[in-house]
Write a structure and sequence with these properties.
seven-stranded mixed beta sheet; two-stranded antiparallel ribbon; 7 helices; 11 strands; single chain; 25% strand; alpha+beta; 259 residues
């Protein structure tokens, strides 16, 4: 049991926080349905796929590093808002955003999606053993301090994922490869956390060097990944024109087409 909360740094009582919220289960799976869940990570030593597994306890991923105040406060409000946004069809439509319904995302909607993506990336990362975690604890604490608003160095992209299998949820976390500089330590360039829920593909990126940002934004544009955080003045139409499949998702998430 942790001594302090992952987000606020406070003490007990702690309770269980589902990485993949229970409300998602009802909209992504039929009871007892066989569905693939993919997970893995990549660090400076290479790619470490954990494997493809059928729908089982891997969906029930829980972190016990969250206090009751955070879990029942700002995190619950965030999940309630996301459920309403992703599962309510627009007027005169039957499809929801989880399954590719076209929507125009304005500032408030993009902010909500980005906050949820960063929170989800942090809670998923906290489940891994310490040697495999990619997100520094200060990121979680800053997210809480800002009441769920992503810290300024964070970039959040939202793409379109159309699986060619039963894949419904996937997650890949990795540290970004260091840049070799003569006479300097090889520090990681940052981290990325890539995950999909339904047809929504999120990538949360933190860059340690501001100089890497222009190239990152260009690559995201080439991959048809609209940036939803930091917020811009213009609305974003989702889904974008190009979608990712199972194979391209893995190559993209593990860095073969990214950075």
């Amino acid at each position: 049991m942790p001594k302090t909360c992952l987000f606020c740094g406070g003490g007990p009582p702690f309770n269980e926080e589902h990485v993949w919220a229970r409300w998602l289960w009802d909209y992504l799976f039929e009871p007892g349905e066989a569905a693939l869940i993919v997970k893995g990570f990549r660090d400076s030593q290479g790619e470490h796929p954990v494997g493809d597994k059928p729908f089982n306890k891997d969906l029930n991923v829980i972190t016990r590093a969250v206090c009751e105040r955070c879990n029942g406060g700002w995190m619950k409000r965030l999940e309630d808002q996301m459920k309403d946004m992703l599962t309510r069809p627009p007027p005169h439509e039957k499809q929801t955003m989880l399954w590719g319904q076209e929507v125009e995302l304005f500032k408030k909607g993009r902010n909500l999606l980005a906050r949820w993506a960063v929170k989800t990336a942090i809670t998923r990362d906290s489940v891994d053993p310490p040697t495999r975690r990619t997100i520094h604890p200060t990121i979680a604490q800053e997210l809480c301090r800002l009441h769920g608003r992503p810290p300024s160095p964070i970039l959040v992209f939202l793409g379109w994922f159309v699986p060619n299998s039963d894949l419904r949820i996937a997650h890949w976390g990795r540290t970004l490869s260091p840049i070799v500089r003569s006479g300097m330590d090889l520090a990681p360039r940052g981290f990325s956390s890539t995950f999909s829920v339904g047809q929504m593909l999120f990538q949360v990126v933190r860059l340690n060097e501001e100089a890497d940002r222009p190239a990152t934004m260009r690559t995201a544009d080439e991959l048809s990944l609209p940036c939803i955080w930091p917020n811009s003045k213009h609305s974003v139409l989702w889904p974008p024109s190009v979608y990712h499949t199972d194979d391209t998702l893995k190559r993209f998430a593990t860095g073969r087409t990214w950075f």
